[in-house]
From TrEMBL:
One of its GO terms (cellular component) is cytoplasm. GO terms for molecular function: oxidoreductase activity. Belongs to the short-chain dehydrogenases/reductases (SDR) family. This is NAD(P)-binding protein. Pfam families: adh_short. SUPFAM superfamilies: NAD(P)-binding Rossmann-fold domains. It comes from Cochliobolus heterostrophus (strain C5 / ATCC 48332 / race O) (Southern corn leaf blight fungus).
């Protein structure tokens, strides 16, 4: 793997396995990316990095200890990328939990929202300034069809009978985060604080509407081999991470830019 500084900088959360790992793999195959492998577990992250380095891919990569539940990790990640590269071209909010840990239902619900919605929002908020430094910035939020309210109410949907309320509810919040990011940073619509409608102050702490260039996507990878849950395996019909990420690369390459700001999957879209 070459040590030459790449032109495009990408950060992937949850990059030590599954979809996140395969995103890193395919970006590094292109040879034009420097990839930050975000991993909350440094041992697993180091193993993933060593695996990629052993493949002698033309791109470059490094491990970033990043737990989206940690404000310190988030702030350190943003500061490090800003200092070393001055910009970020693509953010993949990929880390998620389907079966959150907790002794009570309240704890499990709180953990699901913290990992699947709050953490990605705080990370994205910290990275917006350096995303704006890119000539073609993208935010690709890896969501789930389980977060579609429309599909939840449609009896013919394969998601209709699936419970998983903490996961589903937190993914709905994640989808709303995507929509809000698109309106502000994709369309450049000035945002106001609901308590101070005349302030022109948005939730990022800066006046909105200053940059309409960030392309924001909400993508459902479908049932894919990963560590998300015990059934995300090929023997249960899960799609390979390689095939799923082939579709994600279409977002990277601009092939689906006409669908920016929408909730999409491998071959179409979903109702929010």
């Amino acid at each position: 793997m070459t040590s030459v500084v790449a032109k495009e900088i990408a950060l992937i959360t949850g990059a030590n396995s599954g979809i996140g790992f395969e995103i890193a793999h395919q970006l590094l195959q292109k040879g034009t990316y420097h990839v930050f492998l975000g991993s909350r577990n440094t041992s697993k992250g180091s193993a993933a990095l060593q695996d990629l380095q052993a493949r002698n891919l033309p791109g470059s990569a490094e491990l970033m200890h990043l737990d989206v539940q940690s404000d310190d990790h988030i702030n350190q990640a943003a500061a490090y990328i800003r200092e070393k590269h001055g910009k970020l071209d693509i953010l993949f909010n990929n880390a998620a939990v389907a079966l959150p840990e907790g002794a009570t239902e309240r704890e499990r619900m709180a953990a699901a929202f913290d990992i699947n919605a709050t953490g990605p929002w705080l990370l994205t908020k910290a990275l917006i300034p350096i995303l704006k430094k890119s000539e073609n910035p993208r935010i690709i939020n890896i969501s789930s069809g389980a977060g579609s309210i429309g599909r939840r109410l449609f009896p013919e949907s394969p998601m209709y009978k699936i419970q998983g309320i903490p996961y589903r509810a937190s993914k709905v919040a994640f989808n709303m985060l995507t929509a809000c990011l698109y309106v502000e940073f994709g369309l450049g619509v000035k945002q106001t604080d609901a308590t101070e409608p005349e302030s022109g102050k948005d939730d990022t702490g800066a006046v909105g509407g200053t940059d309409a260039r960030i392309k924001v996507f909400c993508f459902d990878p479908g049932f894919t081999v990963s560590n998300l849950g015990p059934y995300n395996k090929q023997e249960f019909g899960a799609r390979s991470a390689e095939k799923t990420v082939d579709s994600i690369m279409e977002l990277v390459e601009g092939k689906r830019d006409a669908e920016v700001g929408k909730f999409i999957h491998n071959s179409g879209g979903y109702p929010w």
